[in-house]
Automatic annotation (TrEMBL):
UniProt pathway: Amino-acid degradation; L-threonine degradation via propanoate pathway; propanoate from L-threonine: step 1/4
EC numbers for this chain: 4.3.1.19
Domain ACT, residue spans: 353-426
Residue ranges with Low complexity bias: 11-27
Stated name of the protein: L-threonine dehydratase catabolic TdcB
Organism ancestry: Bacteria, Bacillati, Actinomycetota, Actinomycetes, Kitasatosporales
Record NCBIfam families: ilvA_1Cterm
Pfam families according to UniProt: PALP
InterPro entries xrefs: ACT_dom, ACT_ThrD-II-like, Ser/Thr_Dehydratase, Ser/Thr_deHydtase_PyrdxlP-BS, Thr_deHydtase_catblc, TrpB-like_PALP, TrpB-like_PALP_sf
Region (Disordered): 1-27
Top-rank taxon: Bacteria
Subunit structure: In the native structure, TdcB is in a dimeric form, whereas in the TdcB-AMP complex, it exists in a tetrameric form (dimer of dimers).
Organism from which the protein derives: Streptomyces kronopolitis
Length: 426
C-alpha cells in the first residue's frame, strides 16, 4: 500500500480537442464554482443516500458511512460533471453536438446529460465493451460507435471525430466544469455528515477526487482526504513522486472505472495539493470489498466503487473516524460480477477448489462426497479427468469447487479428506 504526503501544487490546465489551449494563468476552480454547479444540478442529479456500516465501523473503531453514488442516475457520479460541462456550452457548441469516449460510466453520464439538454451526442466505446453498458448508453440517447480494442484507440477515434465534425469533446475528468460538477459530492458529504474526519475516494484520472477534495477542504480543511487506486493501474504514486503527470503501461485491474494510465493535467495539480494520501489496493482486496458491499450493505457496487471499502478493510485502524467512503458507481457487468464474487469468496476463504485422485470404480465418488457432507461443505461443481498420462489405469482425477464458511472451515474440509485417505492438491 503506497502513501503520499502532498507538496506545493503548480497550476496546470488541459486543452480539449477542438478548443484553444487554456492559458497557463487560467483561473483556478473555487468552491463557488462547485456551489454554482450544485445549483445547476438541482432536479437533475440525486442527493444520494449516506448509509452507515456497522461492520466497517467495528473494524475502524468509529462510525463509517457509505456515500452511495452507485444509486445515482446512470449508476455513477459521472452525470454530475457531464451535465455541468454540457450545460456550460454556447448555443453554437451545442448545435455542433458533443462526443465522448468511454467503456461505461462516462458514456452513460454524457448520453443522459446531453439528452436532458437537447444536445446530440456521439459516444465511442471499445469493441469489447460490456453489452449492458452499450445498451444503456444507447437508451440514454447517444449514438454509439464501437471502435478499437482498448480505450486509447477509442479515445483517438473520438478526438478525430471532434476535429472532423466540430463536435465538442467531453473529457472524462480533465476539465474545470467536470471537476466542479463532481465536487458537488463533497458538498453533500459535509451536509449529510458534518462531523466527518476522513473521506476515502477512488482515483482514476482524478476528477472526482479533485472536485471532492476542493469542496471539502475549502469548508473543512481539517478533514483528511484519502485517495485509492488499484495497484495494477496506479498512475498517481509515480506521478506524485515525480511532481508531474507520468504515464504508466501495462494496466491490469478489474476496476475499469479507475483504470487510467496517466493523471489529468488539471486534476494532478489539485490532487497533489488537496489529497492528503494516495493508497493502492490489490485485486483480492477489491473482490472482498465488493462481496462485503453486497452481503453486508445490500448494495451492488462495481470494483472501482468498492475501492474505498477495500482500503478500509486492508488497514482499518489507520483511518480516523467518522469516515465517509464514496461508492462511486454500481455499473458492473453481470458476467464480471459472477467472476468477481467467486474470486472474492476465494479471497475471503469462502470458496475452495481442490483436486484429488479416486479409484475409478462405482461408488468411489459417492463415498468422497459423503466425507464432504459430514463436514457441511457445499459442492458447487465436480469435474473428472480420465485421460491424463500421469494417472494410473484405475485412477480418475476429480476437481471440486466448494462453498465454505471461511478459512477455518477450509482447513476442516482438507483435514477430513486427508483423514479419509485422499491425497489433496490445490
Amino acid at each position: 500500500m503506497a502513501a503520499h504526503t502532498p507538496r506545493t501544487s503548480h497550476e496546470t490546465s488541459a486543452a480539449t480537442p477542438g478548443e484553444a489551449p487554456a492559458a497557463a494563468s487560467a483561473p483556478a476552480i473555487t468552491v463557488d464554482d462547485v456551489r454554482n454547479a450544485d445549483k445547476m444540478l438541482s432536479g437533475v442529479s440525486r442527493v444520494t443516500a449516506m448509509e452507515g456500516s456497522r461492520y466497517l465501523a467495528g473494524l475502524v473503531g468509529a462510525p463509517v458511512h457509505l456515500k452511495c453514488e452507485n444509486l445515482q442516475r446512470t449508476g455513477s457520479f459521472k452525470i454530475r460533471g457531464a451535465y455541468v460541462r454540457i450545460a456550460g456550452l454556447s448555443a453554437a457548441q451545442r448545435a455542433a453536438g458533443v462526443v465522448a469516449a468511454s467503456a461505461g460510466n462516462h458514456a452513460q453520464g454524457v448520453a443522459l446529460a446531453a439528452s436532458l439538454l437537447g444536445v446530440r451526442s456521439t459516444v465511442f466505446m471499445p469493441v469489447g465493451a460490456p453489452l449492458p453498458k452499450v445498451a444503456a448508453t444507447r437508451e440514454y440517447g447517444a449514438e454509439v460507435r464501437l471502435h478499437g480494442q482498448v480505450v486509447d484507440e477509442t479515445l483517438a477515434a473520438a478526438e478525430a471525430y471532434a476535429r472532423e465534425t466540430g463536435a465538442v469533446f467531453i473529457h472524462p475528468f480533465d476539465h474545470h466544469d467536470i471537476i466542479a460538477g463532481q465536487g458537488t459530492v463533497g458538498l453533500e458529504i459535509l451536509e449529510q455528515c458534518p462531523e466527518v474526519r476522513t473521506v476515502v475516494v477512488g482515483i482514476g484520472g482524478g476528477g472526482l477526487a479533485a472536485g471532492l477534495a476542493l469542496a471539502v477542504k475549502a469548508l473543512r480543511p481539517d478533514v483528511r482526504i484519502v485517495g485509492v487506486q488499484a495497484a495494477g493501474a496506479a498512475c498517481y504514486p509515480p506521478s506524485l513522486a515525480a511532481g508531474r503527470p507520468v504515464s504508466i503501461e501495462g494496466l491490469s485491474t478489474m476496476a475499469d472505472g479507475i483504470k487510467v494510465g496517466r493523471p489529468g493535467e488539471v486534476t494532478f495539480g489539485m490532487v497533489e495539493e488537496l489529497v492528503d494520501e494516495v493508497r493502492t489496493v490489490t485485486e483480492d482486496q477489491l473482490s472482498s470489498a465488493l462481496l462485503l458491499c453486497l452481503e453486508r450493505a445490500k448494495l451492488v457496487v462495481e470494483p472501482a466503487g468498492a475501492s474505498p471499502v477495500a482500503a478500509l478493510l486492508a488497514d482499518p485502524e489507520s483511518f480516523e473516524g467518522p469516515v465517509v467512503a464514496v461508492l462511486s458507481g454500481g455499473n458492473v457487468d453481470p458476467l464480471l460480477l459472477q467472476r468477481i464474487l467467486r474470486h472474492g469468496m476465494a479471497a475471503g476463504g469462502r470458496y475452495l477448489s481442490l483436486r484429488l485422485r479416486l479409484t475409478d470404480r462405482p461408488g468411489a465418488l459417492a463415498a468422497m462426497l459423503g466425507v464432504l457432507s459430514v463436514v457441511d461443505a457445499n459442492v458447487l461443481d465436480v469435474g473428472h479427468v480420465r485421460t491424463d498420462p500421469q494417472l494410473g489405469l484405475t485412477e480418475v482425477e476429480v476437481e471440486l469447487h466448494m462453498e465454505t464458511k471461511g478459512p477455518a472451515h477450509c482447513e476442516e474440509v482438507r483435514a477430513a479428506l486427508r483423514e479419509a485417505g485422499y491425497v489433496v492438491a490445490e
